């Protein structure tokens, strides 16, 4: 197959993945402000799209981790071909779409890494091409730690927000004002999402350009790559938002403005701090961790362990599952041009099939729309309006 | 080599920045309430997660707000001080966010 044709195919597929990523993740930033009524859904979604676009231009640390770190290219590693990246992307997209259909919690980022790793292993038929230390350092450990860190931070922040604004004389406490704060904090999450998630696709495209010998410098990201990735994720965010507006109001748990503000702020700071150090974490998992942590920060809350466990299992399964799909796709590409055609056809059939299936089942339901972030709110059970304990007034 | 100190850095930085921003904003609201200007913000739209507020309820809330403001034990000067302190708190929260954004954009450090 013509080298440039496969490169174009991979870029198109990568941008499609970027689009689905935005589509899937609008709720990360905007579920809590919509839930507390801080913003009208339409405004929230438009703002998220714009800020995702802006965020894509801010940093390239994560993109460089992906393009230069995890999979060894060139002379010291095993040669990564555009075909393998293509197979990895097929694995990521198929797994992402499947989990979306069945309402399983998953992470776009881990699907992407899983698909690539699976494809690289099968393609080279050894464990050589993957830099396991970088994978552990930049992907797996951050994946495990980041939601926990975000949860702890959100817990602390919620406690602080409530403690500082608490009044025992039943006068207005001004907590309504957290709705204004939420406009800013959720914007920051959307911005952070753009910096971390759009960069993953930039990394993939750059990896492809390097693998195809079109780009030689591994330390830069081409401007057109940044622009197209930013646009794809912004468009996906906007389109995904309509789906959320349509079905919001089903399955959202009670979120108070103070809690939402604390959760959003901790999501944003955790993602931004990690992005700065080049950790490619899952924004979905961080947002879910924050929502659970902030729920626990409210008085009278307990964890529903069954729900929390289900979310946890989804997180653990994503990477290996996408790796298996990516591996199978890579095995098929070994047939040459025919293999690529088979992969493309199967991929398109699966994507169209999932879209068709989701439309047939009464479009979107509470199971597949409200996202992991909203679902993770259900992992915490909260008593309504517990009475104040102490009587001290200011 | 796995760089454990980087994870610690992320944890500490996130905790510190979030605590500063959330505390500053909360103190701002507390001081606004103390100055007799507790904000009343109705939800922009009503989802399942929010109990719908009727116009009567929102009027009653505004009335309570006014009554509390009238009974405010602070003098006018103290109220003004509380108001300015509230604005200062919001400014601190905003500045912390802007500084955070400044830190992550490599363009500013070249």
What do these coordinates show?
The complex is a heterodimer of chains A (394) and B (110). Chain A is built from 14 helices and two strands; from the N terminus they run ααααααααααβααααβ. Chain A is an all-alpha fold and 394 residues long. Chain A has one domain (3-166, 174-382). The termini of chain A are far apart. Chain B has 110 residues and is an all-alpha fold. Chain B has three helices and no strands. In chain B, helix 1 (4-34) runs antiparallel to helix 3. The longest helix of chain B is centred in the N-terminal third of the chain and has 31 residues, at 4-34. Chain B is extended, with a radius of gyration of 20 Å. The chains are: A mainly alpha (394), B mainly alpha (110).
Features:
heterodimer; A: 394 residues; mainly alpha; two-stranded antiparallel sheet; 14 helices; B: 69% helix; extended; membrane (chain B)
Q: Name the chain pair whose interface involves the most residues.
A: A-B, 71 and 52 residues
- Structural class of chain B, by secondary structure, is mainly alpha
Q: In which range does the helix fraction of chain B lie? A: 55-70%
Q: What is the terminal-to-terminal distance of chain B?
A: 28 Å
The biggest beta sheet of chain B, please? none
User: Compute the gyration radius of chain B: what is it?
Assistant: 20 Å
Which runs of chain B of at least 5 residues are low in confidence (pLDDT < 50)?
none
- How much of the sequence lies in strands of chain B comes to under 5%
Family (chain A): Belongs to the inorganic phosphate transporter (PiT) (TC 2.A.20) family.
GO molecular function (chain A): phosphate transmembrane transporter activity
Protein name (chain A): Phosphate transporter
Subcellular location (chain A): Membrane
